[in-house]
Automatic annotation (TrEMBL), chain A:
Gene3D superfamilies registered for this protein in UniProt: abc type-2 transporter like domain
Keywords tagged on the record: Cell membrane, Membrane, Transmembrane, Transmembrane helix, Transport
Superkingdom assignment: Bacteria
Name recorded for this polypeptide: Transport permease protein
Pfam families associated with the record: ABC2_membrane_3
GO molecular function, one term: ABC-type transporter activity
Stretches that traverse the bilayer: 12-31, 185-203, 224-252, 258-278, 290-310, 316-338, 350-368
Chief location bin: membrane
Cellular location(s): Cell membrane
Residue ranges of domain ABC transmembrane type-2 in the record: 131-371
Membrane topology label: Multi-pass membrane protein
InterPro entries: ABC-2_transporter_component (IPR051449), ABC2_TM (IPR013525), ABC2_TM_bact-type (IPR047817), ABC_2_transport (IPR000412)
From TrEMBL, chain B:
Domain ABC transmembrane type-2: 135-376
Top-rank lineage group of the source organism: Bacteria
PROSITE patterns assigned: ABC_TM2
Cellular compartments annotated: Cell membrane
Name of this protein: ABC transmembrane type-2 domain-containing protein
UniProt keyword terms in alphabetical order: Cell membrane, Membrane, Transmembrane, Transmembrane helix, Transport
Organism annotation: candidate division WOR-1 bacterium RIFOXYB2_FULL_36_35
Main location class: membrane
Membrane topology per record: Multi-pass membrane protein
Pfam families linked: ABC2_membrane_3
GO cellular component, as recorded: plasma membrane
Length: 374, 378
């Protein structure tokens, strides 16, 4: 029996290797693609500002100095109201801060000085976050002013004050390149997992070569399992190469053990196979398969937590996304890579992923057998 | 000789072939709409409900009031109470928490003695974006708490509350209530019509190559221009109609305004539909195997789209180098036109540069495909 399986696996393997272009594309995915992603870091808080300082005082300059990276980027200083309007209208800056004449004078006279801010609401989310930061910067400045005034007048040296000390846990330097390359790795595994496996199965259906296999003295599962095992093997090899890229030239630290990472990744590939099998049983041609896979791939990639936090999703969506294997794999792989967790420690996520995998695989296999016994 | 009749005939054949495969037709037509609706209602426009753990070692009225300030910020969701630092760290390790705040045991005592007290914030750094946002919000909450206690301090020692030195008056243009749909939905139009048309175009050509039905064309009198454009035409039209459907949903149901030139939007939609089909075509011309073509199309559409197109992060907030990449992508220009026309009320001339870029990308994709495509075997 083993010999039979071995031969079938060899057939699949050769089929894969002889498609040179596919091989090249897969290699590109696992090396260059990941490498390139890590080097282009995105900074979503790089909010461009224009400053219109009519006051030109020490105070206004002090405030401007507090609008600094990583949240803000002071792009230009302007001298006229019209200019300000134009900059926001053509989208060169997303906010303009105006210091009216007599700004510092008001503060010195114990009156409330007014800081005028114009925000571009087109980028609603970024602008709202920016406004929050501006509020927080001005609050801090207010506190400083008050404190200084108290110290100056009353002779009191201390005022009550809560200071926040942030400490970044796990990825202490907030290295974005590491995280981006890891996320690209997860994306690559997800894509290859679903696309390669469904194609391997459906291609034979489409070309009718599966009929040849059906009349051979092989049972249905004996046809499908070697196929799946080979593809899982291929994907695992890709992951292996990609891991090498992630660990060596990119220098992402692996805080946990490599075995945990392998087990978790193998489980994820297994789960993807289950999903691929399910899709493959629904459709007859490759086009259908691919379209249906993409109906799944897009939400899985976008909503599993890489681009928006899962807890910010609407409740219904949170329910749906708990069927996304990537949600658990993301926690597991990030946990092993960056936090040094062991699988036992993350048993909840591991069991959820395992359940998804076993159920989808079993149902997929069962449906596959049914579709051929008819 | 170029003939419209033959081009239309090819398009008709492609459409019939598509229509007679019912499942495929349904997925192609309704799949993108489904995705659009899924994301229109499911993709959160702002980061909220960040899970926060608070370790309160003080358990005083003041520390409770700080907790309430976090609770009322609307940004954080406070998880259960924590007993010690290790439990908090475990929560962070398991990704149950985005951040943890540790209130020291002398919190109230120090504040009542009018001195400074340090509150530590442990923030999960494994998602740098969320970490920075969390940090900013925690800082904002702490600042507003500080303003409050300072005000009480003034009342206690000076008899009256003091004037706030600086007050902010913010005006938000185009979208005074920060309605997230204004930003998100015009971006989703593009997401809706970038994947399926491109992949369908790829599949339709590689399928003919793989099953060898392309030989019918090789020995017919149809020229390659007629064949390629005719074949792509149904997909372009479907994509265009889908973008219109999304547009109607956004304007009529989700209340996104339409302030500018509708003509500019229509032209941009048509050009972008053609461009995204063109990407698929371009790849299919080179590649025979379907699986390979799909993977390549995915790289060129999917992986770039999320990061560079401006769907999630405004292009203007990207760094200089990344903005160059995003400028080269047709999707960036389409999203730009959609947002500018709908929200800012731009007219045709305001967005003509983006329209030209879209037109150029169409010319490049189709021109190169037609040049490279050979009407012969091997």
């Amino acid at each position: 029996m083993f010999y039979k399986w071995f031969n079938l696996m060899r057939k699949e393997y050769l089929l894969f290797l002889r498609n040179t272009v596919l091989l090249l594309v897969v290699l590109y995915f696992s090396t260059f693609d990941i490498y390139q992603t890590s080097t282009t870091s995105t900074d979503p808080n790089f909010f461009p500002l224009a400053i219109y300082d009519m006051d030109r005082s020490v105070k206004s300059q002090e405030i401007v100095r507090r609008f600094r990276s990583p949240y803000f980027h002071v792009k230009t200083y302007i001298n006229e109201e019209d200019e300000l309007k134009k900059l926001i209208e053509d989208g060169t800056v997303s906010a303009a801060i105006t210091f009216p004449k007599g700004f510092a004078g008001d503060i010195a006279a114990n009156k409330t000085a007014n800081l005028q801010i114009i925000l571009d609401g087109t980028n609603s989310n970024a602008s709202e976050i920016a406004l929050n930061y501006i509020h927080s910067i001005i609050s801090e400045y207010n506190i400083d002013l008050w404190t200084a005034r108290l110290k100056g007048s009353g002779g009191r040296q201390e005022v009550p004050d809560v200071q926040m000390r942030p400490f970044f846990y796990s990825n202490t330097s907030l290295n974005e390149g590491w995280v981006l390359s890891l996320q690209e790795l997860y994306t690559v595994i997800t894509l290859l997992g679903l696309v390669l496996i469904t194609t391997a199965i459906v291609n034979e259906k489409q070309f009718g070569t599966i009929e040849q296999l059906m009349i051979s003295p092989l049972k249905t599962y004996e046809i499908i399992l070697p196929k799946i095992i080979t593809m899982m093997g291929v994907i695992f090899m890709v992951v292996f190469i990609a891991l090498f890229v992630v660990l060596m030239p990119l220098g992402v630290p692996l805080a946990g053990t490599i075995w945990d990472l392998f087990i978790v990744t193998l489980l994820y590939i297994f789960t993807l196979t289950g999903y691929g099998l399910l899709i493959a049983t629904v459709s007859n041609s490759l086009s259908e398969t691919i379209l249906i896979s993409f109906l799944l791939i897009l939400p899985i990639l976008l909503l599993s937590g890489m681009y928006v936090p899962v807890e910010s999703l609407p409740v219904v969506m949170q329910g749906l996304i708990s069927f996304s294997p990537l949600k658990y794999y993301l926690n597991l792989a990030h946990g092993v890579f960056l936090k040094g967790n062991s699988i036992c420690f993350m048993w909840k996520d591991f069991c959820s992923l395992l359940t998804l995998g076993v159920v989808s695989f079993a149902v997929g296999l069962w449906r596959f057998r049914k579709s051929f016994s008819e | 000789m170029f003939s419209w009749i033959r081009l239309i005939a090819v398009a008709k054949k492609e459409y019939l072939e598509l229509k007679r495969n019912l499942l495929l037709f349904l997925v192609l037509v309704f799949g993108p709409i489904l995705l659009y609706l899924l994301h229109a209602y499911g993709l959160p426009v702002d980061v909220k409900n960040l899970t926060l753990g608070i370790l309160d070692m003080d358990k005083s009225a003041l520390s409770r009031s700080l907790q309430d300030t976090f609770q009322n910020s609307g940004i954080f969701k406070i998880e259960r109470t924590f007993k010690d630092k290790n439990e908090l760290k475990k929560g962070l390790d398991l990704a149950e928490l985005r951040a943890g705040v540790i209130i020291p045991h002398d919190f109230a005592a120090k504040l009542e003695r009018n001195s400074s007290v340090i509150v530590q914030a442990l923030i999960d750094g494994s998602y740098p974006n969320y970490a920075l946002i969390s940090e900013g919000y925690i800082q904002a909450v702490v600042s507003s708490f500080n303003l409050n206690i300072l005000d009480q301090y003034f009342v206690r020692y000076l008899g009256s509350s003091a004037n706030i030195p600086i007050d902010i008056s913010a005006t938000v243009w185009y979208n005074p209530t920060f309605n997230g749909n204004y930003f998100m939905l015009p971006g989703l139009f593009a997401l809706t019509i970038i994947f399926f048309p491109a992949i369908m175009a790829t599949l339709s050509l590689t399928k003919e190559k793989e099953t060898r039905s392309i030989l019918n064309f090789y020995c017919s009198s149809v020229t390659k221009t007629e064949y390629l454009i005719g074949k792509m035409l149904p997909y372009v039209i479907i994509a265009f109609l889908q973008s219109l459907l999304c547009f109607v949903h956004a304007v009529l149901i989700s209340g996104v305004p339409m302030r500018g030139s509708i003509l500019a939007f229509l032209i941009a939609s048509l050009l972008f539909s053609a461009a995204s089909v063109g990407i698929g075509l371009f790849i299919a011309v080179f590649i025979t195997s379907q699986a390979t073509a799909i993977l390549l199309t995915t790289i060129l559409t999917l992986t770039f789209t999320f990061t560079y197109s401006g769907i999630l992060t405004p292009v203007i907030c990207l760094s200089e180098d990344n903005r160059v990449i995003s400028y080269l992508l047709p999707i960036t220009h389409y999203i730009d036109v959609a947002r500018k026309v709908m929200i800012r009320g731009a007219d045709f001339y305001d967005v003509q540069n983006s329209l030209i870029m879209l037109l150029l990308s169409c010319i490049v994709f189709y021109g190169a495909s037609i040049l490279i495509f050979k009407k012969r075997i091997g």
